[in-house]
Amino acid sequence: MESCREEVLQWRVSKNVGLCEPNNGVLPKSVVCAFSSRQGGVSTGAYTSLNLGLHVGDRPDNVVANRRRFASAIGIDLEGWVAGNQVHGKDVAVVGRKDRGRGAFSQDTSLAAVDALVTNEAGVWLTCYCADCVPLIFWDAQGTAVGVAHAGWRGTLAKVGLEVVAKMVGNFGCAPERIHVLIGPAVGSCCYSVSEELARLFEREFGSGPLTNREGQTFLDLKAANREYLVRGGIPPDQIYVSGLCTSCLPGIFFSHRRDKSPTGRMAAVIGLRER
Ligand SMILES: [Zn+2]
Questions:
Q1: 22 dihedral zone (left: phi>0; alpha: psi -120 to 50; beta)
Q2: What is the rounded distance in angstroms from the CA atom of residue 258 to the CA atom of residue 264?
Q3: Which of 13, 31, 234, 253 is deepest in the core (most CB within 10 A)?
């Protein structure tokens, strides 16, 4: 299985908030996309400092303040954020301007039991929340439709990424060969040791491709597994960009559920279409 290409994301500090954005030229001009870090927020303790997850036990007012900071840093409005109540599933919600703000200020208003969102309407900022799980970001080459998915090992094996592609094709008329995907910062095969049972589930799907053995342990490359499913689903390999950033390797930059245990914070991946 092919390894990561040159890093697709660049680090930037905007209004004191640290974040990662795709390199210049990767996205169509109409598309906004960013990945948050843990730097630049108001949360304390295990959530220090830019925790963007409302569902992990942090003070809600701090999380909303952090979200406002991150939204402002990337030039979007928190009023337009949309979030799903993530359950490690494969369901995708098609959302639009009517859904602006769902899950932005309260977990109760998020879309129930969805790990992925798609839209073709401007000003709808699709989000997902991860601390090791893989954020998948989708856009079509014309810059008229976007998607996001949260893929831990369960979502990966459920092919949540291909469910997003199917929704973009079925609802917006996108062609798979015109869809681009960015696989964001997540726990890497450097740090993700898995049980033999879990390794066997992946081996059944991919052979030994995403698995490596060292020091008596088996390590899984979840990003590579997601990439492989997308290639099998018709996404051109050169339109899949894989971040080499490992959330577990970079404690000053990212939260990591495996490294820090519970409680810890969450980063957000955001994508949307600019309002013109
Ligand atoms: Zn690592």
A1: beta
A2: 10
A3: 31
CA of 1 to the centre of ligand 1 (A): 18
Separation of CA 247 and ligand 1 centre (Å): 7
Q: Which amino acid is at 3?
A: S
CA pseudo-torsion sign 154, 245, 261, 92: negative
DSSP H stretches of helix in 153-234: 153-157, 160-172, 196-206, 222-232
Q: How many whole angstroms separate alpha carbon 54 and alpha carbon 58?
A: 7
Could you read off the pLDDT of 210-244 as tens digits, one per residue?
Answer: 999 999 999 999 999 999 999 999 999 999 999 99
CATH architecture of 9-186+235-273: 4-Layer Sandwich (3.60)
- Percentage of the chain beyond pLDDT 70 is 98
Mean pLDDT of the chain, nearest integer:
97
Ligand 1 midpoint to CA 251 (Å) = 10
* pLDDT of 255 higher than 50: yes
How far, in Å, from the CA of 249 to the mean position of ligand 1?
4
* Residue from 131, 169, 132, 163 nearest 148 by CA: 163
Tens digit of each residue's pLDDT (9 = 90 or more) over 177-198? 999 999 999 999 999 999 999 9
